Amino acid sequence: MGWLWAIIVGFVLGLLAKAILPGKQHSPLWLTTIFGMLGAIAGNAIAQGLGVAETRGIDWSRHAFQLVAAIIIVFLGDMAYMAVWGNKRKQRA
């Protein structure tokens, strides 16, 4: 069940990050989900390091760290995706 939640949270975080970033992101949905999962892991690590990972009630600060990390990872990951695959797509067209 843990993997299912990781995929769901990664999917949601990835889509939120794509919606917040300006412009069009070209990475496919499966890669956006992986970026979101990496953002959740990084956000959890940052929150754990700052001592705010476990609070009473909803862990808003942990979720904020996860979202910020997902935004950064989606941004950088999409740049890397376009650097590797972007030119190949243009050559085919």
Description:
This protein has helices at 2-20, 29-50, 60-92. It has 93 residues and is mostly helical. Helix 1 packs across helix 3 and helix 2 packs antiparallel against helix 3 (60-92). 80% of the residues lie in helices and 0% in strands. It is elongated. It is built from 3 helices and no strands.
Strand content: under 5%
- Helix coverage percent of residues? over 70%
Radius of gyration: 15 Å
**How would you classify the helix and strand content by structural class?**
mainly alpha
- What are the secondary-structure elements, in order, as H or E? HHH
Q: Which stretches of 5+ consecutive residues score pLDDT under 50?
A: none
Arithmetic mean pLDDT: 88
The biggest beta sheet reads: none
The count of DSSP E runs of length 2 or more, i.e. the number of strands, is 0
> How many DSSP helices?
3
Shape: elongated
- The end-to-end distance, rounded to whole angstroms, is 42 Å
